[in-house]
Amino acid sequence: MSTPTRPRRHRRAVRQLLLGLVPVLVVGLVAVCVLAARLPGARAPLAAATASAPATVSADGGPPDGRGLTVTFRDAEGRDRTGKLVLRRPADVPSGAALTVRYDPDEDPAEDPADDHGPVVVHADGDAASGSVADLVFGLVALLVVLAGVTALTAGRLLGRPRLRRRPAGSVRATHVVSRQGLVVRSWLELATPAGLRWLPVHWAPELERLAPDSGITVHGNTGRDRLVLPVVGGTEVWPAGRLRDRAPRGDLRQVGVDPAAPDIGMARQARADGVLPFLAPVLGLLWAYVGEGGTGSFLVATALAAAVLFWLPQLLGSDPRST
User: Which is it for strands 120-123 and 80-86: parallel, antiparallel or unpaired?
Assistant: First the structure.
């Protein structure tokens, strides 16, 4: 008795998932290094401000951009000093308002003919320096969360899909269909099961193009009970790109014409097909910079990361390179 031929593994799905993951890792790690390098310099003035004193506001609306406050305080040596405090944004602070400031006791005051002890840089909770540090820390945390999430989802698919081949195999009838929703085009298998029609999103493979409508295929898993099953089409495993559904996919759904000689498609064409969605990244970058009140650097980092994530997402969803 001959041993049944083992189905070929879906190596194209692996390449597609890695195609989406690598840009996110590269952009994210570069951004993390840039923010991490800036953090010590941003924290240095705050770390040096080890002395504190009660202060009184004497003037507001100073430079830069109307965010400067002039305050007076008495230092630890009993000397009356003038300090400059920079806020995150302009504010109407009445003269005589009291607040606690921190300053560097070792800072050499500027020479002033009218005052032996000129103005020094002071800090307070919520000022521009504290805000810059908080923004950098938040950016680092956000980047690490995105990197961890993208890596975990991709790794879960790379490690989890091969385990589906251990499930018992059965036969169903299948038809290859494609859905278009916005800029995302996905391949699906429409499965005729004993429990009714089911739709399974799958990573594209040339065997799908060669599949005649309503053809019998092998499926590892129970299509009536399991949320994930592994189809075998034309002797090749076809990785699911999502859960088995009992409702038709949203968007424009159509049946794909059969091409018995359909060739494989390389990752270069896959990248070109999915290169449209990242053009939305500048809009997300502007939104991030506006909400976070960041500057050009914040916009550039957010745009680069958003572009990488928007390119990764279709790879995770199993975008169809022939119909995009």
Answer: parallel
